[in-house]
């Protein structure tokens, strides 16, 4: 097996654009884009700070019922790494105004025929 090219500039640019598109949709509560960027599969997993969601239907239900206020946040230590042409991991820390907690987010992205999609995500808060 040939080792994948790590952080090919072309692939890294594509994933980085999708990561920040997701971030804008998250802080702007653009549910349509959030739903688009998650893989529409029962295999998709999102482990949140207060919920474990298995499958796109649970993820979509969570998004539809999530409060839409106070979503702004500042990202820190964002690391995006691509592995070959079709897989990437995006990791970041975040803070919110009025809170001293540090949040963590990690996403696994896969390129499908319809584009880059999150197949697994994790969000947690450091205590």
Automatic annotation (TrEMBL):
Taxonomic superkingdom: Bacteria
Gene3D superfamilies the UniProt entry points to: 3.10.450.50
Pfam families: AtzH-like (PF11533)
InterPro entries: AtzH-like, NTF2-like_dom_sf
Protein name: Oxalurate catabolism protein HpxZ
């Amino acid at each position: 097996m040939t080792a994948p090219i790590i952080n090919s500039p072309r692939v890294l640019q594509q994933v980085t654009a999708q990561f920040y598109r997701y971030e804008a949709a998250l802080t702007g509560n653009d549910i349509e884009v959030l739903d688009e960027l998650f893989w529409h599969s029962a295999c998709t997993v999102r482990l949140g700070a207060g919920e474990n969601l298995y499958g796109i239907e649970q993820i979509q239900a969570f998004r539809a019922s999530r409060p839409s206020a106070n979503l702004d946040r500042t990202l820190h230590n964002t690391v995006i790494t691509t592995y070959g042409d079709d897989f990437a991991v995006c990791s970041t820390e975040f803070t919110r105004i009025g809170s001293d907690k540090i949040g963590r987010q990690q996403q696994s992205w896969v390129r499908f025929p319809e584009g880059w999609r999150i197949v697994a995500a994790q969000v947690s808060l450091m205590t």
